[in-house]
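Re: your question from the hallway

Yes, I did run it. Sequences:
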Amino acid sequence: MEYVYSLLVLVGIYVVLSASFNLIIGYGGLISIAHPVFFAIGAYTAALCGIHLGTPFAVSVVIGALVALAASFAVSLPALRVSGDFLLIASLGFQLGVVQFIRNINFTGGPGGLSNVPETIAGAQRGPLFAALSLVFALLVVLLIRWITTGPYGRAITAMRDDEIAFSTLGRHAMRIKIVIFALGSCLAGLAGGFYAYYYQFLAPDQFDILQSAMLLTMVVVGGMGTTLGPVVGAVLLLALPQAITFIDLPTYLMGPLQGLLFTSLVLIFIFTNPEGLVAAGKERR
Amino acid sequence: MSADLAIYLQILWTGIAISSYYILFTVAFVLVLKVVHLWNFAQAGIMGTAFYAMYFAANTLQLSPWLVVLFGLFFTVALTVALEYFGLRTLRDRNSPTLTFFIFTLIFSEFISYLLTLIFGTEPLPLYRNILSPVRIVGNVAVSNWDLTAVATTVSLLVALWLFIRYHRLGKYMIAVANNGELAELYGINKKRVYLVSMIIAAIFAVAGMYLYGSHASLLPHTSTGLMVFAVSATLLGGMTSIFGAAAAALLLGLVQAFSVLFIAAQWQSFVVYAFLFGTIILFPTGVKLPRLRSNGLARAR
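Structure:
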């Protein structure tokens, strides 16, 4: 049963990650691949606060999210000053640089990882409680993003994404919207990171490397970019598929690359056969 | 010669030699960006394919070095042609947004990387079992055969590219398409053919770079992503559309990285590249302009 709870926690966390990534890439049209690093910043900050300062779970998670939010400005402010393309380049450098930084310093546990994250909930109720919390957290994030994107601000975001020049000629500040979207998405990833740290109680740099970007991108593309439910469908589907592979009983060293091949193949297939993703395609058929 | 000067000269020479493969990767990247107008993140996958094809030829087929390079070239060019024909051309014909090209090239690289991990495993592999190269001492500076091969290969390829762009019809077409693709088409230039030629030249540079890298160090399937980031940094620093400016920037970055051993620990060396990447975006968002190059032949090859 613990396995099911663990899977549910992971589903909740990845729904938050893919939904917040979709806000940046799908709604905002901002090309970034640094989402896993904001997840990492949130996770490591929350864990370090818990270990060294003894802060409670909720406070650590919020601090982690705020640090991720602040870090997002370090990427978006200089990059977006020039053009959207630069955000991609800056995010690539930021992703690789921060993960290497975490790997090289002792304070974060280095390549061996960071353990001893304080236990918040102990006993038999830990699994079901974390699973419930995770799913509620995911639901709230999806509703928040839906509320933002269907309201007046959401229409402004869509208008900015579809035609930035026309949007700017109406006197709207496109860069401000981009920075806000990027900050909000990164902050939500940081929140998910703090949650992840407290549930798994162990963090390693490899958990946040660039391959995570491919996984999140797969969830968003396969589910449907720029839709509320797309990333949810993508996250659930993409977390369920590897579980199916685990039942084939392959050697461990084959599992990682096989899962990666599965994710990337799906994206490539969807790009050419169904670029709008599962949810958007469903809407079209109706 | 004082000991300090000898050390500086040694670092300078080694830095130049190591920069050779960085220059090749950078030229490959900036050529596609300039002519095809594509941030080609698929280059990491192409570089990985080049290395592992040559690894297979050298270790499993036990071929001679020239045949190893030819084998690598065959596979890499074939992959590049397939990428252009079945991937990029399809997306162009559909008028796909920039975001789709970005996702496609990035995921393509990731796909290749996973495939290579599945086939070759996760152990770092050099191209040859023995990567030690005979060394001679020239004025207190150790110069290896590998250093000389690397520098000679890079200089030869750069000169060949300059001559191709300057004097060959296709090279001139590349510059025309880079400057204004639509206008070039009106003059009867086949833009698709030019894109394909640019991608193939980039693949040749990638193969040469990976041969040099692999005969000097070990590689993991994901290493090529880091090498590509170096090329991206140099491309930005060089002004994004200047082929030889980006090559000069790659040399500069390589030297900065080499000299950084005097100030920082070895594991932080690659961090210098990321620092430069951010510094360039903040301080020189359109690259560093070198006015002197504009008045000579190198500038005409821009």
